[in-house]
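User: Round two. Same drill as before: sequence, then structure, for each protein.

Assistant: Same drill it is. First protein:
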Amino acid sequence: MLFDNVWGLFSNDLAIDLGTANTLIYARGHGIVSCEPSVVAVQMDGRGGKKVLAVGKDAKEMLGRTPASIAAIRPVKDGVIADFEICEAMLRYFITRAQPRRTLVKPRIVICVPFGITEVEKRAVRESAESAGAREVYLIEEPMAAAIGAGLPITEPSGNMIVDIGGGTTEVAIISLAGIVYSKSVRVGGDKMDQAIIQFMKRKYNLLVGERSAEMVKCTIGTAAPTEELMTMEVKGRDLVTGLPKTLEIDSDEIRTALQEPVNAILEAVRSALEKTPPEISADIVDKGIVLSGGGALLKNLDILLREETGLPVMIADDPLSSVVLGSGKALDEMNLLKQVAVS
């Protein structure tokens, strides 16, 4: 134990929220040191080899704009690793960026994973981190990390409910005594919302828009419930009838209609979790309410819609985008808490 503490003095321990949309890194003693899109731009050679050209923000700029020989890849899909080799390259890049000074000791790394991932997927995450230079790897389930990051009293004998809406998955969890009493993970998140907008534009206007444009629409005028005033914005894309570039003006009511399906899937997951909650914990949730975290929590009026549908108080975490990485960072700082909440 003492030996471990001595190692800890020399290594830059990190907590990583390996998200479908963004990867955030927390360095012990420094806070959040990196927040970049989980995108890698790869050059393909004729022999099937891959050469990494750019990672993070630079690679995201290339999404949908690359020639045939270059592909912008998102190695994490629906919260799990889809491309092992590219994910390892991305992790290595982020870990190197987060550790500007070289140390002899490899870092201890905490990585967040979706609730209920398979043993094979856990092993893929562990091996990716070890190949990228980790000394020890701990895994924490995302809803647990989000609850710690949102400041919920997870070690107390009372129920806390967290809804973490990420890029690939939405995790709904009931937590008590540093354990997950019930959790439901649905593969609906920011990406599905973007796809819903793309399909809506195609169906209604015969306009093909890219992923980045759809995301911009969602962030600017996307709403889950009606707003007091109608918001509008211009969308550029390709007309599927003429094949020419075209600009359209759309409003927030149309986008609300487009987002109905993914938003309803999130509501259904919340309802399902509430139905399966033990009665004593239900009583705690009536008092404390539901806490929203993750990038999807920023969708306008989602908290209002959830409040109307469940009749419970709904709060948004102080920093929803960073809740998961802040929670895993807190666990990294407190070894006892980490041992309680880490998954084997």
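Second protein:
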Amino acid sequence: MTLNNKQNVDGKKKLSQTQSTKIIMKVGLALGIGVISGFIFNWATMPLPWMLGPMFANIIAALIKLPVFGPTRIRPFVSVVIGLMLGSSFTPAFFNQIELWALSMAFLLLYLVVAGIVVVPFYRLVAGFDMPTAYFSGMPGGLMEMMIVGKDMGGDEKSIILAHTSRIVVVVALVAIWFRWVQGVDLSDRSQFGTPFSQIPFYELIVLTFAGVAGFFVGRFLRLPASMLLGPMLISAALHSFSVVHNPPPQELVIIAQIFLGTIIGCRFVGTDPKTIIRAIRLGAGATLLLLGITFSFAFLLYSLFRQSLEQVVLAYSPGGLAEMSLVAMAMNADIAYVASHHLIRITFVMMMAPLVFRFFSVVKGKL
């Protein structure tokens, strides 16, 4: 190696080390902002505090050009934790009660179809989104699930994120205001959700770890949509359904996963025009009002036909977060299992069926 070549190699190494150091510092700043904003959102009892706090704070940081960078390489592991958490909602009690709730669950599936038929064209025609982006922005599934699957299907990640973020915030805010003014109910401390690390038996921690690893590889092997999330979720659901384990992933780990995911999402907006973000949120609010209109219509229908509790159906059908709607149900002394199971069905059904339906219509369109 000549002297010039050696100098070039050394120079590239130093440049690479300098760039790596800068990226690490940017990631550290973004995560620091995420942790602080998560604590603030949690203290203020905001919806999904440990994800939306870091998300909003890092969006603001990106817009004012602070040196932030998302820890994107961690996202697969974050998806595993979220999948294990979702799967833990499948308990033996769920299957014992499902016959009693079959009617409202059947109507819930119809509700999801109607919601998709109404909201997807809204994003396609009013917002002017391309079909993949409009489709996954309009699906009333979970923010994380639709963001991951929508990106895999060719949708614009930023638009999908903003659509579902505004949906969650508007739904939780309006439902909370409804029950506060009409029912005298208010959101309270959410710390009761989740199980601390110290309270989970050691053997269950080992089983959950193996479930996460196995789900990671099984999901990829089966080529499932959002495989790193759905694979662990299915295995976790099986383990909890057959009472092999009884606890979700540790609360601390779930919080950390949400902080990482919120930070990653927020940092996607580096260089984004503020007008684009404002427009997306305005469109998301419009779509959310359409969804709530459908929600209340179905709630009144079930109440009129079958005398099911209007309040519980509203909580079960509202396209907000599972934890937030369950919290309101707890404050109302409503059936938490009823509300939580319907949200789990909603998230699972949309997550599993939305990609299949999208692929089907894409194939049909390609043959025409």
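The mean pLDDT is 80.

User: Perfect.
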